[in-house]
Structures are given as C-alpha cells and as structure tokens.
C-alpha cells in the first residue's frame, strides 16, 4: 500500500517592514549622524531580538506587536551575538565586540512571572568579540565563547539576582558555535569540533583531522 504524502504548506517570504520600520536607520550623536547596522538576530515564538552596531538591543514582542529597546551602560559598542530563551521567565543574553556579556530577565504580564526588568553581567573574563552563546533549557546556565577561543560558564540564580562566571575551556582558535544539552557542551571552533563534559570537565574531539 502506497504511503500517503503529507500535505504541502506554501509560505510567502517577505521583508518584516513592521519590524524594520521600528528601528532607526541613523542616530544623531553630537554633530555626527551615525548609520545603524543590524548585527545580530535571534527569534523564538514570543520575541524577535535584533542587535545593532550602536549597542542597542531591539526586542520585538510578537504577541503584543510592541518594540522595546535595551542597551549597555557606558561605552556604545556593536552587539555581536544575541540568544533568547523562554523557560519560566523570558531571558535574552547579549554579547558585544569588546567581550561584554549581559543577561536581561524580561518583564512578563503573566501571573507569577517576573515583574521587574533585571540585568546580570558576566564580569570581565572575555576580552574580545563574543561569537557564540548557549543556554541550558532551565536558564540557570549560560555559556559564552569569543574569537580568541575562550569559553566562559555563568551560573545564574534569578531568585537571588546572582551571576557567577568562570573560564572553563580555552581553544587555540575562534569559537564559532556552542550548544548545550544534558551536561554536555558542543563546541565548534575554526579548527575542530568537540564535546565538553561539564561534570567531568573532560573533552572528546569529534573526528580526527583538523579543519583546513
């Protein structure tokens, strides 16, 4: 008996003008007009997060059709990576060109959820551009990688408002991808891919030959 083919769903792809029109193309800083470039993107069912060259994070709520803006205090620098997570609270991690990493715990209108915007900073371990971020499913762990090969683990206690960070791995080439699940961190660099077992703090390389 022939299998029944699944129905084909046609989708139309078009520019998100409602999103793009809410982001300025230029800003005025003193007497200078600065062009705003979009530098990082992540999406989930609730939000679209867009990082920019002026250090501003634009967060579009897909349910309320509202755009909100978040930024780093102090130096205005390009955002290089953003990573969203929806667990008990909505979280977004942001990395910059100088190695700054911050986590924003978003406000929710749902009962029992977070009612005040909070920010956690990963203090001063990264010294170069953030190239990858990965969450644990429960939002208690964040891994960040940079273009010098450093990987930092940050333990977050959202109830106590605490973020403790430490260097867990250092590779000789830039980190290009991170993914975490079941106490195993997948790491891809310009030279190799490996599995880092966070409990044993051991490394297992995927494949034997380095990338060319």
From TrEMBL:
<dbReference type="InterPro" id="IPR001680">
    <property type="entry name" value="WD40_rpt"/>
</dbReference>
<dbReference type="Pfam" id="PF00400">
    <property type="entry name" value="WD40"/>
</dbReference>
<protein>
    <submittedName>
        <fullName>TCPR2 protein</fullName>
    </submittedName>
</protein>
<dbReference type="InterPro" id="IPR036322">
    <property type="entry name" value="WD40_repeat_dom_sf"/>
</dbReference>
<dbReference type="InterPro" id="IPR015943">
    <property type="entry name" value="WD40/YVTN_repeat-like_dom_sf"/>
</dbReference>
<dbReference type="GO" id="GO:0032527">
    <property type="term" value="P:protein exit from endoplasmic reticulum"/>
</dbReference>
<dbReference type="GO" id="GO:0005737">
    <property type="term" value="C:cytoplasm"/>
</dbReference>
């Amino acid at each position: 008996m022939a299998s029944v083919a699944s129905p084909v769903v046609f989708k139309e792809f078009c520019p998100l003008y409602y999103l793009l029109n809410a982001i300025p193309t230029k800003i005025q800083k003193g007497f200078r007009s600065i062009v705003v470039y979009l530098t990082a993107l992540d999406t989930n069912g609730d939000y679209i997060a867009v990082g920019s060259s002026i250090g501003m994070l634009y967060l579009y709520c897909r349910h309320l059709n509202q755009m909100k803006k978040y930024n780093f205090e102090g130096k205005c620098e390009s955002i290089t990576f953003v990573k969203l997570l929806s667990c008990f609270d909505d979280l977004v991690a942001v990395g910059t060109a100088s190695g700054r990493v911050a986590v924003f715990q978003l406000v929710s209108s749902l009962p029992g959820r977070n009612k005040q915007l909070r920010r956690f900073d990963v203090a001063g371990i990264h010294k170069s551009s953030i190239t990858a971020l990965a969450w644990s499913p429960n939002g208690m762990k964040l891994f960040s990688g940079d273009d010098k090969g450093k990987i930092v683990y940050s333990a977050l206690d959202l109830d106590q408002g605490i973020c403790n960070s430490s260097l867990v791995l250092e590779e000789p080439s830039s980190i290009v991808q991170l993914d975490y699940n079941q106490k195993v961190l997948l790491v891809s660099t310009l030279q190799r891919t490996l599995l880092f077992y966070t409990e044993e703090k051991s490394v297992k390389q995927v494949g034997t030959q380095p990338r060319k």
